[in-house]
Here is the input.
Amino acid sequence: MTANVCEADSTVFCARLNEVSKLFGSFAALRQVTVDLEPGRCYVLLGENGAGKSTLLRVLAGLLRPSFGTVKVFGDNAPQDARARIGYMSHAPMLYDELTAQENLRYFASLYPGRPCLAPAEALKQVGLDPALTRTLGQYSQGMRQRTSLARVLLPVPELLLLDEPFSNMDVESARQMVELLAGFRQSNRTIVITTHQREMAAPIADWVLTLHAGRVASFEPGSPIR
Amino acid sequence: MTANVCEADSTVFCARLNEVSKLFGSFAALRQVTVDLEPGRCYVLLGENGAGKSTLLRVLAGLLRPSFGTVKVFGDNAPQDARARIGYMSHAPMLYDELTAQENLRYFASLYPGRPCLAPAEALKQVGLDPALTRTLGQYSQGMRQRTSLARVLLPVPELLLLDEPFSNMDVESARQMVELLAGFRQSNRTIVITTHQREMAAPIADWVLTLHAGRVASFEPGSPIR
Amino acid sequence: MLHALWTHLVKDLRIEWRSREAVNSMLFFALLVVVLFSLAFDPRGAFSREIAGGVLCVATMFASVSALNQAWAREIRHQVLDAQRMAPTPGAELFLAKVLANFLFVSVVQLLLAPVFLVFYNLHVEGQAWQLALVLPLGTWALVANGTFFAALSIRSRNRELLLPLILFPIFMPALLAMVLATTSILTGDSDPTLWIKLLLGYDIIFTTVCLLLFDVVLNAE
Amino acid sequence: MLHALWTHLVKDLRIEWRSREAVNSMLFFALLVVVLFSLAFDPRGAFSREIAGGVLCVATMFASVSALNQAWAREIRHQVLDAQRMAPTPGAELFLAKVLANFLFVSVVQLLLAPVFLVFYNLHVEGQAWQLALVLPLGTWALVANGTFFAALSIRSRNRELLLPLILFPIFMPALLAMVLATTSILTGDSDPTLWIKLLLGYDIIFTTVCLLLFDVVLNAE
Amino acid sequence: MKKIIISLYAVATIVLMVWGFYQAIYVAPEEQTMHEVQRIFYYHVPSAMVAFLFFAVSLIGSIGFLGFRRSRAVWAQISDAWALAGAEVGVVFCTIVLITGPLWGRRAWGIWWTWDARLTTTLVLWLIYVSYLLLRRFAAGPQVQTLAAVLGIFGALDVPIVYMSNRWWRTQHPAPVFGGGPDSGIKDPAMLAAFGWNVLAWLAWGVLILVLRYYVERQQQKIAEHEAQEALNA
Ligand code: HEM
Ligand SMILES: Nc1ncnc2c1ncn2[C@@H]1O[C@H](COP(=O)(O)OP(=O)(O)OP(=O)(O)O)[C@@H](O)[C@H]1O
Ligand SMILES: Nc1ncnc2c1ncn2[C@@H]1O[C@H](COP(=O)(O)OP(=O)(O)OP(=O)(O)O)[C@@H](O)[C@H]1O
Ligand SMILES: [Mg+2]
Ligand SMILES: [Mg+2]
Here is the structure.
């Protein structure tokens, strides 16, 4: 783990988007987005519905390729070549309904061979779930699912953490706990990108706030407490 | 048309919900909702996501049957028996993608035999669309689709108009026009129920504001201008 | 009363005409099934005439099921079905129009496929060919009427594409049997198909009536 | 290298074991098809042995297609596929594990169906029965490997349940032909099936290789 | 300039087709066993050859698309246009084979169709490429080209089987005329000449359609690209 952190340290940028545009057919979801993400910072992405936040995260995760422009992560890599070092959590839980949380996590952990992963039970505890639960994920509530999903992302200890509305189904108290957890992450020099509609939730750790509007960067400013 | 209006006039209540509850499995979407709707009034339904607004409208439309309690419209009718007199517009456009707006409207108009309907072209003009457009609905933008959907609802000149977030994809100017149109409707003694998240949009015509919270009526108060 | 039926029918035909998706994919699918069956049951053998009727019926069946699965897709997509339920016209007409439209599609496919089929199986009809013009529509009607009904019933389930054949096939079996036996006896000229034709007719009348009566229940089920 | 393959396989088997949905519905479907075919092609006739091989293969095929359509459903439902794409393990292993799992399911169905089939068609094997234990797995593998691949390919299209058979059947036809001919010659004992078995083997090797090579392209296609 | 070349080429093609027709019907000698029907040979076999060639074009286009799609967008689009054009025009020629074959078979064998290896594999080839075209219609979005390219590669696997089918198996369909056994090949020079002219004519005609189809597809790609640019700048 320490080795990885140093690796992330040695590059000046954790991720670099250069004039990135993404078209779906003739609809432009992202337009000429240029952003540099520094390691050890937390970026909060804001914007109305359809502004392109999720699309931007998926481009960073390497799940979508930009129509124009380039994306580089950890120096000069394409995101596809550094998949083990990127964690991505989307709107959907990305977990199997038919398995328990532990089974899900054990499964995903073993897809990262050669990478020191957290123990599933530990990851579950981190997100405030009881590892002893034997219900399958299909019987979890929306909020519990979201936590399990977060645990899945934390498993391989990624250096770049992409979270799409992680708090949307959590109550305020759990969301606060999550933010604290993420704050710890940031201190070990990992980069976090969060999209959210509840700006005040993420405010305590927001180093930078990036606002998208109709696919364009509308503003990029240092994080600030709630106005 | 005039005959219909008189008919609506003669009953004291346009719709009457008595202790209506709606369960989905073991989840209660509506809990003991009791409301009377008077003819010629406009009711605005507020509430967070999942509060039960759409469910309430669907119960009023007769598309869902309440698990407990009774719904009566236009005197002592079940909503199912007065379908021709109720207009319902949901989140989804409820129109065929493969037909043009005119074709869609002509089709739906002919499903109301014996009821004096508006001419499709006229209905389209009312909602601010050009009746001459020959594109099929699949090529319309979200906002245009929503207007066509509104035109579909207006066609059979319903006495009870149920609109589920009619302004959600419209720009402010068009929404204002829509509100004016609806205001005219209300004057001819028709009842309107609107759900919306943009309370200030509907404020000019809101006679009553009904707020739902977790399936319960949280407040029911006379409409007021924006605070 | 039949005004709404006509309206629904015209709408369905117009939409299909715009994309021709259902007919095209059904045609190709039926062609595939005929070819597959020819590979599986070598029609050069002495018994080709004996099995040709079965192949034709089963090919029609599989092709129709693939199309019937999509029968209500357009109504589901943008919740148009809710608009249909709100309209003060009887559901039976909606159902009948759908059945008629699908019946037309399947019949078109059958007509186009018939020559291919005759060529592949080197067939010439021994019995009275005009009876085929009775048997095939009757059998197709049985298939399409039940199929449309059960497609409406299964659209609400999670894996509906799987469900439809599982419900439809057992119900359709008597009609299939009658259809196959009638076709075979016409093709071979061995026996008289009238009994089977009557049976098909009876099946059609009973099942269509029941479907019509129960469709409103299915349509308005929550 | 095969570590991830094993992980995927265990996961798929465990999920199937919890619900047994795929095997159950496939079994029922295959049973229906066998019954339907028995109705369509009277198995009392003199040629029942000639067509039994074809019926068995075609029943397997239709049943598998209905299950293969659902092969990736779990991965699609909650976007798990995206998580798979993010993992640093080769897509080929994911593919191979899916194929293995589906191969097991279809084989189970075949084993359960075989006695029913023998009874319905009054069969006893004239040729060398052990060769069947070679032909059926080879043919099933051809079907499942291609089917899994093209199911992954067609999940991205609008009406995917329709598309899968349309793409899969033509590609699978050579293997089906070899499978049917081999089965029939084993059942009747008329001719030597070795040529067909070799052909099946060649088909399996070539197509599985191509599928493995191209799966990453399909998985990561946007 | 481009237009003039294409027009000249089209005229030359028509002249060739007429000349080929003349050669096949009036010049080539009558065959001893099959008599006049044998003349359909001059259409049947060249069409099959052209179809094979165009499916090969489609294969190369598909591979090219997969190779270039990450690195050179323009080349990838060009490859894709060739892949589509090759498959579409190939299907047309394959259809001609499937129509002329039975017409010939009806006279030569007394039946329209039989399930021997050559006929079956040809039919399967046609079905595969029709499904390729269906995929291009049904699947939407930018991934269509990738998925179609994958299917194109699978489809091409069948071409060698068709070609070898009457070499591997004993078929009712005539044994190979060229490259079959030691005594294969056309003996009569007039027949060979007629055959050669017809191959040339059909090839020229096929290439004309292929290029036109390619051109239309490129044009459509450019329009789509233009629309995308507009959307981006809007
Ligand atoms: C009924 C459907 C038929 C189909 C689908 C078909 C298909 C083909 C194909 C694909 C070729 C390949 C040409 C090549 O290898 O370059 C071919 C060649 C040929 N066909 Fe047919 N054919 C059919 C019927 C017939 C009939 C009835 C005859 C004559 C009795 C015939 C005579 C030939 C000859 C002489 C060749 C050239 C032999 C060779 O080079 O392989 N074909 N046919
Ligand atoms: N696969 C796709 N195909 C076509 N359009 C898409 C696709 N994915 C996203 N879009 C469109 O791109 C735009 C941006 O979508 P995106 O999901 O990035 O928005 P968002 O900012 O995350 O919104 P939300 O807050 O609602 O999640 C939307 O208009 C959406 O319709
Ligand atoms: N068919 C259904 N089956 C199960 N649960 C349902 C169904 N329809 C609605 N619900 C649940 O009922 C609750 C109320 O839903 P409803 O659509 O009425 O909310 P809403 O107030 O309209 O929310 P929104 O503002 O998001 O539209 C939600 O929690 C929803 O998940
Ligand atoms: Mg989003
Ligand atoms: Mg709602």
Observations:
- Residues 3-219 of chain D form one domain.
- The longest helix of chain D spans residues 91-121.
